[in-house]
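ok so i was messing around last nite and threw this chain in just to see what happens. nothing serious, just curious
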Amino acid sequence: MKDIIVGTRGSKLALAQSGLVVDKLASYFPDYNFKLKVISTKGDRILDKALSQIGGKGLFIKEIEIALLNREVDLAIHSIKDMPARLEEGLEIIGIPRRANALDVLVSKDNLTLDDLPKGSRIGTGSLRRRAQILNYRSDLEVEPLRGNIDTRLKRVAEGDFDGIILAAAGLERIGWEDRITQYINQNISIPAVGQGALAIEGRSDDDAIKEVVEKLNDRPTIDTVKAERSFLDYLEGDCKVPIGAYGEVDGDKLILSGVIGKIDGSLLLKDSVKGSRSKGQDLGVELAKKLIDKGAKEILEEIRRGEQR
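result:
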């Protein structure tokens, strides 16, 4: 029996996600022995600073990618929203399974929705995208930084440090904690992060044998939508230092792509959407990015990056 080593982060959520993928692969390929290898990343170790201060989302995959390139693992499983638009040379996304719920959710102390939270309520999130959109919707809330795994974040609400926190629906659903969710936040209020709810299986570009194994899990609608979202992100050169989001939906042979970019304080959000052929997802991403640039996205990006240099 051939061993296939799968790289993953060690959080409860990462292990649950990787376990789902490995179980599915094992059902298709019983002659292989899939083994998880936990790899600690910088993003897991530094929890007292915002991601935007320590280098961005790539910090959750860097060490795992090194293990891939060094052939210490055969493939790796990530949340796509943690992956930069451009990957290390020699690596690529070789599989994308069916997407889970892409929406953001609110978990609140007193089970109050966004509309019902009192003025001045403290909301925790580690995402500038969520911060900008929530403040745009409710400028009277206090949105404050929050890092840590799901257990830690939920504990902060239970202990009264926050009146509510914003998380990804997929994370709570994958570990069976849907009962903690107070409200699913409509994308009209908060457009999700690029790739949110989707998993990426990353492998070496030259490893055709592993690609053949992973191919079995690919979900075409998810691939089409995520490709369009990542094209949008790439064209705008976006990262976690910028409040930016995109979400694609399949409508028959068409794809509807919505995007947002905004100021960190929520004072300005630029939104738009495009619709076109599913087979032209990358082109749709570029088209949407250009529409937002025409509305002023370039000025927002420049303002944010000037602030980083101070």
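not much to say yet. Residues 235 and 290 are 8 Å apart (CA to CA).
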